[in-house]
Write a structure and sequence with these properties.
464 residues, alpha/beta, Lipocalin, Rossmann fold, 3 domains, 9-stranded mixed beta sheet, 8-stranded antiparallel barrel, disordered N terminus
Length: 464
Amino acid sequence: MKLAVLFWLASLAWAQGDLSGKWDVVASPEGRTAMKMGALLKHDGAELTGTVSSAAGSGPLKNAVLGNPHLTFQFLLGKYVFDVKAVVEGSEIKGTFTGPRNMKGSFLAKRADLLAVVAPAEGVEAGKLGSAEYRIDIPKDFNGSLIVYCHGYSPAPGRFDKDKAPTALTKAFLELGYAVAQSGYSTGGWAVKEALEESEAVRKYFLGKYGKPKRTYVTGHSMGGTITMAMIESFPDAYDAALQMCGPVGPSHTGFQKRVFDALVVYDYYFPGILGSPVEITDDVASGLEFMQRIQKEATTYPDRLSAFQKWGGFLSDTEMAQVVAFFAVIQKELIARGGGNAFDNRNTLYQGSPDDGALNRGVKRYTADANAVEYLKKYYTPKADLKQPVLSLHTTYDPLVPAWSANAYGELARLNGGDSLYVQRFVSRNGHCNFTPQETVRAFQDLVTWKETGKRPESGEQK
């Protein structure tokens, strides 16, 4: 029974750790000889599983309840059940256990995979965690801190070539001494759900292999900006600060309704049938450039309609309009497939900004939403705007995909919650989506690091 207790204790010790990995456990029943155990565990979100082993055998972990920092487990050996209560203190877990026949005692678990950790060697590691590819870049002069990068919207999952040079931004971070880890996500499209889980898995993998970083930051562009906000809100104890760039960071359902769906509805009013319909997008979107060129050709054939739609949408050119509409059609088609239906209802929407708003509102088609699709988009992602860590948000002054009102949405929510002291928004005076230079991004990141290290909140305004 002593061994059973030890197995269970070791399992418990691992459960509250940041990562899956190996643990060394010493369990000390009162009045009896302390016993040494080993545990190999897997921590996935709120689920902890694994095996605890000793000379007497091995057994599984069950009924783990993870808190912060408290945790409880049960370990079953034969017909006997053992209960553990513990607290996580850095790389150690300390607590007590009880078992059959009034057995009780103390235990101490230490992360075995952190005891002999050395600074990682310079280089690139690429592989697969679950169904998602990942890449980790480590500089020669590693400063001990990690940046987790979240990429933007892509129709297909990200792929990584170990032999390919890092991007300009990754290279800039490496030159500052930071390691950079990123997931390609297991699916394409609006992969916020998958990205949350799989980017966090990469961080945990880094922690298990190389040790706990001094600081861990999260950053990302476009959809990756949304994921960045979701990460810092969902895992405030894992990440020290966040740099969100050009993402739709307000409630996703609201942002998609106002920018993507409404744009498709109004476009369909001026150019009916090209899309199929806003709730049943044509398969022609898969042709990419060809579909975009079709949109542009149709628009220039009817210059009055083009002028009206450009005025309504604020587009700078017919080329930009065609690119945006084609991209929005791809997004809407993918959202319908992902959520199981159309997530948007425009029966009460009042459209304005056209040359004739009366005619527009009389002529646009009205649609109802599928409840399940709405719930999916609300879940991935509606921000809480109750920050526990600093966030710096960066946008251009003109972005045809994520306009300024969307960029402002998170700050407005934070102010309403009375918690905007940890949120600063800055702008780069330039046109285009995510149109920042690596130098501007690095300076924004350095301002974020200074904020985290000194506690002095930076000023909002233009990012130089």
